[in-house]
């Protein structure tokens, strides 16, 4: 049996009202803070993490550059996604790669998520050690060591992807004689997409190969519609809908040809990133019937919703199309002005090593004068470039009054490439408050 290390044991420090119970973050199990985490202030070196958070220190006691998590926004986002999946009639296995934070995974599971999705063999082992009950490995698992691990007795139900008979053949020697079968979802892709069988005919060949391989069990179909569209235009939504209809058709074809074995835990039809989960539910939810004659679950894998953002996902979120209220950005950067070398330019102390930039540069939202004043809106400041450790901020209008020592609050785009830059993230009560305070810590696990 796999053991969960103590450092991932559930901590309870911030109490959520929206998800109906305590949200398990990490402060109580971190122990002494040290300089190894860049979010830890000098005054807290050697201090107990829970004890320091229990003082509810303000941002002026934390260093810059800094990225914080907003406890209220995390709570609201988890609750909103829980409510949507219930109303849509689907299950949720959020993508864990967004945060790689087992404490946030636990909060999602506590709110009703079926399991967690991962994208690499190593992430799969993290999820196993965190005792996630259902793990969707949304890629072909070919690492021999990981496959041998899956062949051992385990509590978790693990479902892996395969998009070719060659993938199945590569897995076969490492799962023969498995204590319990490894469930396989046939991945359907498309021309110009990422992985995935390029046609239904090829996908059927994959399914037959899985049926013929000891240690593997054909358990459903999967795909990723986000590979075929990148905005919310009518044309993009139509492309997504067509792809999902093909995925639905593949599942029905497998049923019609009696290719599925008996799967007591149920078949799985899975799609749904963070940009089009509404279309996924519209097309696939009619297949969701966990108590039917052929138990089947439709599982969406959206992950970025938990932190949302002030950039890419803000522009494409299905919540705007659904009209049920939006997600809130839970990630914010806090950077200090360290140089005013020109009238219209400020340099701040954060760059590519601290902030995401792959789906848009950070946006300046607010300022804390002198680093201690109340958080107040700021207009006329724009991040135009990032170096490794510097942000170039162009200033117009009132923003030209910025001074060295002022601290800016930044909105960030694409949470996946923010979390991986921070091994330890402070959790504040409310990033929009005049004086946000620390309430907890979240530990990420990025290797």
Automatic annotation (TrEMBL):
Protein name in the entry: D-amino acid deaminase
Classification via InterPro entries? D-amino_acid_metab_enzyme, D-ser_dehydrat-like_dom, D-ser_dehydrat-like_sf, PLP-binding_barrel
Any one Pfam family match given in the protein's UniProt record, by short name: D-ser_dehydrat
User: Record's superkingdom?
Assistant: Bacteria
Residue stretches making up the D-serine dehydratase-like domain: 330-429
- Signal peptide range in chain numbering: none
């Amino acid at each position: 049996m796999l053991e969960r290390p103590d450092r991932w044991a559930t901590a309870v420090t911030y109490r959520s009202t929206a998800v109906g119970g305590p949200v398990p973050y990490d402060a109580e199990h971190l122990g002494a803070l040290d300089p190894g985490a860049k979010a830890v202030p000098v005054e807290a070196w050697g201090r107990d993490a829970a004890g320091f958070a229990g003082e509810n220190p303000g941002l002026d006691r934390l260093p810059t550059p800094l990225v914080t998590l907003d406890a209220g926004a995390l709570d609201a986002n988890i609750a909103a996604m829980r409510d949507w999946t219930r109303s849509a009639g689907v299950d949720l296995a959020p993508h864990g790669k967004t945060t790689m934070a087992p404490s946030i995974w636990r909060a999602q599971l506590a709110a009703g998520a079926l399991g967690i999705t991962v994208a690499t063999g190593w992430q799969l082992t993290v999820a196993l050690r965190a005792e996630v009950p259902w793990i969707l490995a949304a890629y072909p698992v070919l690492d021999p060591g990981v496959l041998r691990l899956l062949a051992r007795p385990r509590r978790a139900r693990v479902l892996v992807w395969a998009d070719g008979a060659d993938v199945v053949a590569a897995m076969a020697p490492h799962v023969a004689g498995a204590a319990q079968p490894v469930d396989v979802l046939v991945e359907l892709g498309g021309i110009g997409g990422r992985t995935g069988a390029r046609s239904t005919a090829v996908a059927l060949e994959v399914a037959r190969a899985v049926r013929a391989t000891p240690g593997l069990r054909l358990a459903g179909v999967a795909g990723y519609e986000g590979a075929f569209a990148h905005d919310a235009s009518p044309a993009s939504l139509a492309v997504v809908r067509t792809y999902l209809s093909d995925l639905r058709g593949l599942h029905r074809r497998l049923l019609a040809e009696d290719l599925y074995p008996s799967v007591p835990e149920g078949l799985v039809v899975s799609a749904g990133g963070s940009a089009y989960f509404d279309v996924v539910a519209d097309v696939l939810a009619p297949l969701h019937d966990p108590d039917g004659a052929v138990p089947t679950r439709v599982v969406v894998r959206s992950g970025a919703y938990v932190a949302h953002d002030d950039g890419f996902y803000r522009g494409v979120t299905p919540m705007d199309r659904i009209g049920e209220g939006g997600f809130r950005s839970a990630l914010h950067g806090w950077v200090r002005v360290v140089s005013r070398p020109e009238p219209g330019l400020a340099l701040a102390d954060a760059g590519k090593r601290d902030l995401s930039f792959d789906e848009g540069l950070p946006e300046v939202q607010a300022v804390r004068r002198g680093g201690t004043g109340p958080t107040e809106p700021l207009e006329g400041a724009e991040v135009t470039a990032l170096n490794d450790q510097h942000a170039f901020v162009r200033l117009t209008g009132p923003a030209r009054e910025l001074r060295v020592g002022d601290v800016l609050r930044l909105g960030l785009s694409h949470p996946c490439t923010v979390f991986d830059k921070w091994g330890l993230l402070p959790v504040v009560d409310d990033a929009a408050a005049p004086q946000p305070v620390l309430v907890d810590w979240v530990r990420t696990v990025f290797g």
